[in-house]
Amino acid sequence: MSKKRRPLPQGRTSWKKTAVTAIPAVLAVGAMASVMAEGALAASFAVSGTNFQVTSGKLTSQGLASYVHTDRDVGGKGHPVALLGLGRATLSDICQAAEVKTPLGTVVFKLTAGGDAGQVTADSLVIDAEDLVGDARFGTAQIGRDASTLDQVPGVQGEKGKFGLQAGDIEVAGVRSHAWSATGGNFRLKGLRLDVSLDGKKCF
Fold this sequence. Notes:
mainly beta; 8-stranded antiparallel sheet; Cholesterol esterase; DUF6230; signal
């Protein structure tokens, strides 16, 4: 005859039961963190009502994947962009500037880093850009590949049947872009400086 299990004293916790219950939650959090690290959630938030400038003297990356995407603001308005996924990005310097209207007038929110302080680096950098200007060199390139089959940058894939392109190691000098969003992991911003000023100077 099996022994009856004694009820736990009040206030005590069954750690075995707690562990079993917690496993799915832990796995879900781990999976979410993995997806975020790969940049797959780059477009999961509503963008603001204005784009911003991004410049860099030189950008290099171990891999590029790109396809056409639509960012949406809180009002549901769509903004067509080229989603640019960079596997491991290194920038000689970076400047980001956005104009923001306030009761005091138009304020320029400006962030700079790199240059003499050292390079800027980021893992799984994803930029949703309206345009991109610069002098580029691609190690290898595949243009017109189905966006759902892109595999150069983990987590960066589009819809089946849509236009996409990807490349191996890339280098772009004189980068200028208007973007709606940018996300990445393990950002290293040496010499970071943030300025907010009325009618301030933008990046270009």
